[in-house]
Specification:
There is one protein chain. This protein is mostly helical and 321 residues long. The chain folds into three domains: 2-51, no CATH class; 61-149; 177-320, no CATH class. The chain has twelve helices and eight strands. It has a three-stranded antiparallel beta sheet, with helices on one face. A three-stranded antiparallel beta sheet has the order 4-5-6. A two-stranded antiparallel ribbon has the order 7-8. Helix 2 (61-77) crosses helix 5 (130-149) and helix 6 (177-190) runs antiparallel to helix 7.
Length: 321
């Protein structure tokens, strides 16, 4: 059966498969006789694909990848996504869609996957590491899940998969113990050498920040930036009381390094500072208490650890209130 929609010169076709489902496709033809012949051919192809277990019509990889990206963006907008989800979007934009975008899943053969491996090396400029390959494979598998959900990839048919075998990654550079000892001995004098008023404020805060990272093992960047006062908890072990810090690892919260180190981090937060003239100044915690009072907020140190305060620890109170 052929018909023509309003505002188009191309004929459409409608046919029914042996399972009783109807399908509509464009013949791509303007002439009625040619369109009728094309419709018969499309119906025969659809019946054959249905018989051998393939979807009745082909959907391009690029279309499915865009659906996967929209799904990832929806999850991230709800605040429930993992940090790596952003990497999946980048992988799809830079590698998967440019190479596989105009292909359907049935056209992605082992030879095509090998061609992709070579193309990816030339695009990156070096053989990717195993961690990079795992990220690419996970992003590819999300598109596979979309295809299976839509019935475009039968469960009985093995899905194509990207390789995850690559050279192992190298350990990130870290400070040695002598370097840490030198840094901890240097910073107490360094914080008083600031000449500008901004330096006199930033340098003590930077010292607190550096020591806090060293004592807790929290990573600079996303983890440290997201720490708020609500993530602090007092922890008692025997006769000792420690401060436990919870940090976000992307999709969950985990405690920082053992509570023995957390005791050091508590001293960092509660440690009084000294001005350039040697007089004692406010600690990082006290500076927040004074900031709260400027906004007519009365709160104690104990309440800070009990109440769900969403203010960042390492950030100006006014910008986080």
């Amino acid at each position: 059966m052929i018909y023509r929609r309003p505002r188009t010169a191309l004929w459409q076709c409608r046919y029914r498969l042996p399972d009783g489902t109807w399908h509509r496709l464009s013949t791509g033809c303007k002439d009625a006789d040619t369109a009728a012949e094309r419709a018969i051919s499309l119906a025969q192809q659809g019946a054959l694909r249905h018989e051998i277990g393939l979807p009745s019509k082909r959907v391009l990889f690029g279309t499915l990848a865009q659906e996967a990206q929209a799904d990832i963006q929806r999850i991230r907008s709800q605040g429930s996504g993992k940090v790596v989800y952003r990497d999946y979007e980048v992988v799809m934009d830079r590698y998967l869609i440019p190479f596989f975008g105009r292909l359907s899943f049935e056209q992605i053969t082992p030879d095509v996957l090998r061609d992709f491996d070579g193309w990816r090396v030339s695009k990156i400029g070096r053989p990717p590491k195993a961690s990079t390959l795992r990220t690419h494979a996970s992003a590819f598998n999300r598109v596979v899940e979309i295809a299976r959900h839509r019935g475009l990839l039968p469960v009985s048919k093995p899905a194509p998969a990207l390789t995850i075998k690559g050279r192992p990654g190298e350990a990130r550079p870290s400070f040695t113990q002598p370097e840490i000892d030198h840094l901890l001995a240097f910073m107490p004098q360094w914080i008083h050498r600031g000449r500008l008023s901004l330096e006199q404020v930033i340098r003590p805060l930077l010292r607190d920040y550096v020591e806090f990272l060293l004592y807790t093992g929290i990573r600079h960047g996303t983890e440290a930036r997201g720490i708020r006062w609500q993530h602090l908890q007092w922890h008692t072990e025997g006769d000792h009381k420690y401060l436990r810090v919870w940090v976000s690892g992307g999709d969950c919260f985990r405690p920082a390094l053992p509570v023995l180190y957390a005791a050091c981090s508590a001293r960092v937060l509660f440690r009084p500072r000294r001005n350039n003239d040697g007089r004692l100044s406010q600690s990082l915690l006290v500076s927040y208490l004074l900031a709260f009072r400027r906004y007519n907020i009365s709160i104690t140190v104990t309440e800070i650890t009990k109440r769900q305060l969403t203010i960042r620890i390492f950030g100006p109170p006014a910008s986080n209130a």
